[in-house]
Amino acid sequence: MTSLGSISWALAAYQKALRLSLPSKANLDCWSLVFLFIWRVLVIGPRVLAFAMFAACTQYGLFVLCGTHWVLMLVWIIMQRTTFCSTKIQEYCFNVVAAFICIFDFFNLIEGHTRIRYVIYYSIVYFENVAMVVICYFHRSLTAGWYFMPSSVTIVAVFWIGILVQVIYYVVFHPNNKLPYAAGNRIRICVPLSEMVACRRDDPTKGAVAM
């Protein structure tokens, strides 16, 4: 529980610190930070629980899953062509660490709309979580435990509560909605694809952007 709280708080605090360092970004208030933290807990919690169940019934299979996911995330991040470091070696090292973070939750690294990236990432993560539950279901020694059913329900259902909290954060508590010019630039649930493509074309490789 302390590890879950720590990684969730670290991701939320990163967003706050990042926005404080960027004059063009509105700062996170207390409520924004609370919803960021709850969102991360409700998404990362089922992920870690799925890892624990999967490790209990497959042992080394967890390393294969995490390694495959890490490689996939590393390729994805490299394709985004981030520009945080002064040398390519340092940039690759940064990408390696960012890909490791993405084993547990999404780590945004480039400017622009994040909807498509979130949909892709969370679809992969949810598929992996459910697949781990299904594999454990056919492992008799684990399904005999009293904790299998409540853990499975938590993994499958609580994840979506986390996504709901994420939507509430973006629609209600996102700091961009509180800027003086926010009336015409509020965070919207639905954005035309043409607008997202145009935004990506205008600024394809800017540094990290606060969510």
Strand content is under 5%
Integer count of domains? 1
Spell out the helices and strands N to C.
HHHHHHHH
User: Helix fraction?
Assistant: 55-70%
User: What about the largest sheet?
Assistant: none
Cα(first) to Cα(last) distance is 25 Å
Counting DSSP E segments of at least 2 residues, the number of strands comes to 0
The low-confidence runs, each spanning 5 or more residues with pLDDT under 50, are 200-211
Mean pLDDT: 82
Task: Report the principal-axis shape.
Answer: globular
Q: Tell me the radius of gyration.
A: 18 Å
Which class of secondary structure composition applies to the elements?
mainly alpha
The count of helical stretches stands at: 8
Compose a concise summary of this entry:
The protein has 211 residues and is mainly alpha-helical. The protein has one domain. It is built from eight helices and no strands.
